[in-house]
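Moderator note: this is an archived Q&A kept for reference. The question asked for a predicted structure of one protein chain; the sequence and the answer are reproduced below.
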Amino acid sequence: NAFEQVGEAVERGKWRKPAPGLMVAGPTGSGKSTVAKEIRKIFANPLPKDSHHLPILLVTTPSDPTIRALGHEVLSKLIPFVKPHTRFTKHEYENQIIPLIKERAVQAVVFDEIQHFVEHRASNDVLKATDWTKVLIENIEVPVFLFGLTKALKFLEGNSQLDTRFSARVAMNWFGYRSEPEQLTFRSMLGSFEEK
């Protein structure tokens, strides 16, 4: 199930470099947000209020994902109060983001709404941002989780390195309750919530 695969990806990330990734895709209302919350719980170690550490970096992909928009989104999560009009080249973003992920002791990165890359893939700016994001993911040495609608699976197409890194994929679907196997799956999921 999705929770087990999240746990496995986290464990593998502790000893395997580059850390493996996990793609979680499915329609709205299929439980992706619940899985994302589970990832946050895994890394929700209590930290002192003055701690500089950021256990989990949660990035929402902008609806129009250019390098500047996405770079700013990532950087603003790592450095509070970064000015929105700051302009950096893609290499300047990389040179700031990658060391900050290490400095802030980030243990996992979540990119949410990754389908925005697919929705705008005809745009030249979005194609450049897609390539830049792939380079960034390849250089992050912690587990990376990609979340999005079902069409987000196309984000990995055409890049063999990313395709290999994100070979673990969870296809979420709405729960049915008509057949006996569907009822067993649903009860099993409820049982995993009760255990927590």
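Archived answer notes: The first helix runs from residue 2 to 15.
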